[in-house]
Design goal:
The chain is mainly β. Helices cover 0% and strands 47% of the residues. The chain is built from no helices and 23 strands. The strands form 6 sheets. It has a 5-stranded mixed β-sheet with strand order 19-23-22-21-20, with no helix packed on it. It has a 4-stranded antiparallel β-sheet with strand order 1-2-5-6, with no helix packed on it. A 4-stranded antiparallel β-sheet has the order 7-8-9-10, with no helix packed on it. It starts with 21 loop residues before the first strand and ends in an 11-residue tail after the last strand. The mean pLDDT is 97. It binds beta-D-galactopyranose (GAL). The site of beta-D-galactopyranose has 10 residues, from strand 7 and strand 15.
């Protein structure tokens, strides 16, 4: 049994197998945490437009009671091997899955970045399931806000409204918009943010009535400085507040890229930032870095730790 987080070290599931949940998210539902992510447990092929890639396998899911120990719940949205034109065909890209429960429909909705290996398809795919652990039924993909969509995230606000953030215009501009009540379509309510700012890996969370948007620069699998921006309104305007990472290698986001932030249930002000330390020569061996977020007022600080426990939140 694990009793601490060891960022950057191999993280095995309850069977002793390395966890495959890259570009992921964590959802809390009825007493359990669920970690969804990209399964990249295949051969890394060099020479793709982004340097290297793994044939799509699908989205995996793990469950946990304590956030340290995870049970593999299997592939909940598998890639498709028999229809080359399908969005989820093994020759395609399935990245950054995010899952939200829809109280109105009683379904879990999964969002994925679906793409062709040249990253020109650039769409948002959705899938739904009655059960958190799937199987998720793929509904198809859209071009949100009539503009390309690569790295993306979704956030459910306190009033149940769901917002999509996606890197668009070839990653130059971050679009943010409200989704329809079934979460499967965009609406006319959206804004363009950080125009020509080239931000990707968007991560949004809310604390004390303010919205925080973390993101990375655009250097593919290679690390770059993270950035945080703060807004009173979820659709902006966003005030850029610089790099929240602190300490050694913080200018390279600890050789990693942000993917999600969630709060620990039952603890006050306990937010965990999830990062991927990509290994572009062996993508399936990419490591996970989870670190606590510290706040001083609205200033956010994420500091490297070799090992830490939830008790650090008090
Ligand atoms: C990253 C992006 C990843 C993946 C990668 C491909 O910048 O955040 O999700 O698309 O590029 O190089």
């Amino acid at each position: 049994m694990r009793t601490s987080f060891t960022p950057g070290k191999i993280w095995q599931d309850s069977e002793g197998v390395s966890i495959q949940a890259h570009g992921g998210c964590v959802l809390y539902y009825e007493g359990l945490y669920y970690w969804f992510g990209e399964n990249k447990n295949g051969t890394t092929k060099p020479g793709s437009v982004v340097g290297s890639s793994v044939d799509a396998i699908g989205v995996s899911c793990y469950s946990s009671t304590d956030l340290y120990n995870w049970v593999n719940m299997g592939l909940v949205l598998p890639a498709v091997s028999d229809s080359p034109e399908h969005d989820l065909h093994t020759s395609k890209i399935i990245e950054r899955p995010k899952v939200i429960y829809n109280d109105l429909t009683g379904k879990f909705v999964m969002f994925v970045h679906v793409d062709t290996p040249d990253y020109r398809y650039a769409r948002l795919g959705t899938a739904t399931s009655e059960k958190v652990t799937g199987p998720y039924k793929y509904l198809g993909s859209i071009i949100p806000h009539n503009s390309d969509s690569r790295d993306m995230t979704v956030i459910k606000d306190d009033d149940g409204k769901v917002f999509l953030f996606h890197s668009s215009e070839w990653n130059a501009t971050m679009y943010a918009g409200e989704l329809s009540s079934d979460y499967c379509h965009t609406t006319n309510t959206f804004t363009k943010n950080f125009e020509q700012g080239y931000r990707e890996a968007p991560v949004v969370f809310k604390r004390c009535g303010k919205y925080y948007l973390l993101s990375s620069g655009c250097t593919g699998w290679d690390p770059n400085p993270a950035q945080v921006a703060i807004a009173e309104n979820i659709l902006g305007p966003w005030k850029v507040r610089g790099n929240p990472c602190a300490g050694p290698d913080s200018d390279k986001t600890f050789f990693a890229q942000i993917t999600f932030v969630f709060s620990v249930v039952g603890k006050a002000d306990a937010y965990i930032a999830m990062f991927d330390r990509w290994n572009k020569r062996d993508l399936g061996a990419s490591r996970y870095i989870w670190l606590p977020i510290r706040f001083t007022g609205e200033t956010l600080r994420i500091e490297w730790m070799d090992e830490w426990e939830l008790t650090c939140f008090g």
